[in-house]
Structure prediction request, 272 residues.
Amino acid sequence: MRYRIVAILACLLAMAGVTAARAADCAQFGAGNRLPTLDNAQLAAQTQILCNARFAVLHSSLAHEPLWSAEHLDAPMVRAAMSTPRQGDFHPDPRIPSPFRAELEDYVRSGFDRGHMTPSGDMPDRQAQEESFALSNIVPQRAELNRGRWADIESAVRRLALREGELYVVTGPAFHTRTIAMIGPDRVLVPTSTWKAVYDPRRRQTGVYVCHNAARNPGCSHVSVVLLTHVTGIDPFPALPPSMKQVCMTLPFGRMRAPRRTRHTRHTRWLW
Prediction:
């Protein structure tokens, strides 16, 4: 038991040591070459940045899932993804020591889908497709959301990238209850919502989709980056000026409820 504890501590120290280096390695996935920042003490411990061919992930060893997944989505990438058959098998990420990662068995008979944060539908080749199926890019998501409104939002963002030429997109989970549900032997945290932040460099505008991770009629909303950061502690676009994050841009797809113009502390509950 003692040797196991020592080994775990060694793994944690190694993870902390490479986080800064890996952030520099995949900074191109962040607007202004800066990846998202996390200012949430409860979630910030035991995190590790993982660089992939087409996206970067901040993985939490406490949550056993990503806290954000960032990609630079452009029109050529979307067109290549459209001609690449979707293929890949869900798998644990071998870069994460087994005590700190999700395993396939965590999702078995859990009642939740394995929901991509960076979508496999954005990936332009087989390597990128396979990387997107790593459980380090996956959160527990209700089937009603994952296969319905969320899939529609992913498609809408791809269409927007084709129209605008490029987007920076950051996707992640939100946990907005005192008691957080968990699944599987590894106790993977179940988000109360999932969100997708978008920055359009051509228009110099930002906006965020937020969807309840609910089994019945999962509602979705459009909110500002400022509100997202206030609720989650994550700034998806730290390189952008504050003025660019105050107002939510017009995001495509459907009629979604807008937040009431009241105090943050009063109107966030029904959104998240």
